[in-house]
Prior knowledge:
It is built from 13 helices and 13 strands. It has helices at residues 19-31, 46-63, 82-88, 124-135, 144-158, 169-175, 233-246, 265-273, 287-295, 311-318, 331-334, 351-361, 367-382, and strands at 9-14, 35-40, 73-77, 98-102, 138-141, 177-179, 207-208, 219-223, 251-255, 278-281, 299-301, 322-324, 347-348.
Amino acid sequence: MTITNRRLKILGFEGWDGGSHAQVRRSITAHSRHEWQWFTRPARAWKWRLRTGAVDLAAQVVADDCSQMRPDLIFTTSMISTGDLRSLLPERLRTVPVVLYMHENQAAYPFRHQDDVQGRRDHHYAITNMTSCLSADRVLWNSRWNRDSFLSEIRSLLDKSPDQTCSRSVKEIMDRSMICWPPVERSSVSEKVLHNRPEADNSGRSISGAQIASGDGCVRVVWPHRWEHDKGPDTLLRLARYLRHRSPGRYRWIILGERFKTVPPAMDQFLREFDDDIDHAGWVESREAYWSWLGAGDWVLSTARHEFFGIAVIEAMLAGCLPWLPRRLSYPEIVPERAMRLSPFRQVPDVEEIRREIISRLEATRPDRAVSLLDDAIESLASPNRP
């Protein structure tokens, strides 16, 4: 790989500047060794952002009189039609190398029948992702699962094509792909001793998950996801009922994540049914307060039907929570193998050693390291010696 010593000028486009997208954008800007200029759109109406956001973003470039600038590289994300953007930019920018960062993909995103009156997935959004990948010179994925799930679904979708003219598209995308975990910002709170560390009993035996508890004897489970169908609130409700049946009054809940106007029925039922067992439910504006809630938990639970990376789960593990995760999606690549077998109702040997293994694995998400690897990936593309 050829690495340039120059400080590159990078023109960045983010079509969905909210949540983890905005968090990653800010981290890249703060920790990169290059100079970034961003054009963004607010995080709302995702279908319009994906299909028409390029028109708005290209118009912003013209309005800001950037048509004479010559960046070394253009950086786009998955909530933009990259091909449309590239064709709509001023002519002098159309030949600049383009890097696409795939936060998610619409081919493997869980489908709700309510989204289409005919009960069928709209494949246009997956095709938009595909053409974006083919329009970019390099495609960076936040996880192997994101890349592999997309290519698998696209391969199946293209098999339905009457002409089979896109048969090489999957290989072309794979050839220009790299995996770059996103940066996950730490909090000063996470560096403190927030967590109630379990003390070994005099026998030196392993302790059970139920014994990893706060001073009041309760086990606290953090669920740090958006309150939407794809995060599995129905599974959350089922597991909460199981835990209450198994050990009434033993488990308490910390429900974080963004709440929207419409709450899934299962989440609404959970809030009513477990009201007396909930320490907190709802969005936390302050990052310090958010990390404090994470630090108050013993376990982090994911019931997600999809998770292309899992920043919220990583934050909870950094704060000391043990992982209670499904053995699928992105989790097997970001969590050590033996930490994938944990749950609050099983024996947990060597708790502190497991936590150390998790923290060691997650060092790759430390912002300076993660952004440095991203810089390496884009420098080779922007180098004068680029093939």
